[in-house]
Write a structure and sequence with these properties.
With 210 residues, the protein is an alpha/beta fold. It is built from 5 helices and 9 strands. 33% of the residues lie in helices and 17% in strands. Helix 1 packs parallel to helix 2 and helix 2 packs parallel to helix 3.
Length: 210
């Protein structure tokens, strides 16, 4: 649960999370598009006043060098760094699609930002950026947790999916946290990019009351 910046509920009991998905920043995009994206992020951040911002994948694409990737991340992160708002990310299928930069190298670039609280628990050989953060009550106890997973790129089923070692890590981690919390279940949320197939089934059968 170590973090560069501790996440804590507001005095009124609220904790606001802003989700930003599929920003798709790529090298050499024109200045007009860059400024438009920055303005939209600023608008949402100023409107919602979040305690945490999560980029839920396809944050960048087609960056082939560390310099290009950092320039892309600067676009989405600069205002959050300026406002000193904690933020983190997970990877989508485009984030390392055909890239010459390894996941570990990308992770190091993200984590180099002062207010980026992304991490990697290091248990998976295939996926990078699996981690958990606690949101604390004002008295220091854990109020809730946020799990973040790398759902991969592609598979023979088209898009990829959460792997067994990730499911195992989640189960073990949630059990340890419950034990740490005197046996009480800790509510939480989970962020990853590729939806589960159950989401598709639910949508296709939305009219079926059974």
């Amino acid at each position: 649960l170590q973090s560069k910046h501790k996440l804590t509920y507001n005095e009124d009991g609220s904790f606001r999370v802003l989700i930003l998905a599929d920003t798709h920043v790529q090298p050499n995009i024109n200045e007009t598009d860059i400024n438009e994206l920055k303005d939209r992020i600023k608008l949402l951040v100023d409107k919602e006043n979040p305690n945490l911002v999560i980029f839920t994948g396809d944050n960048t694409l087609r960056a082939t060098t560390e310099e290009e990737l950092r320039a892309c991340v600067d676009v989405i992160a600069s205002y959050l760094e300026e406002k000193q708002i904690p933020w983190c990310h997970v990877y989508g299928n485009h984030d390392y699609e055909g890239k010459a930069i390894s996941k570990a190298e990308q992770q190091a670039i993200y984590e180099s930002y002062e207010y980026c609280i992304s991490k990697d628990e290091g248990f998976s050989t295939e996926r990078v950026g699996n981690y958990v953060h606690a949101v604390y009550n004002p008295d220091g106890s854990i109020g809730s947790v946020i799990y973040l997973l790398d759902s991969g790129e592609y598979s023979r089923y088209t898009w990829s999916y959460v792997l067994e070692d990730q499911v195992k890590w989640y189960k073990e981690t949630s059990e340890l946290l419950q034990e740490y919390n005197d046996g009480k279940v800790i509510n939480g949320m989970m962020a990853f990019h590729v939806p589960m197939v159950e989401n598709k089934y639910a949508y296709e059968n939305r009219a079926n009351k059974d």
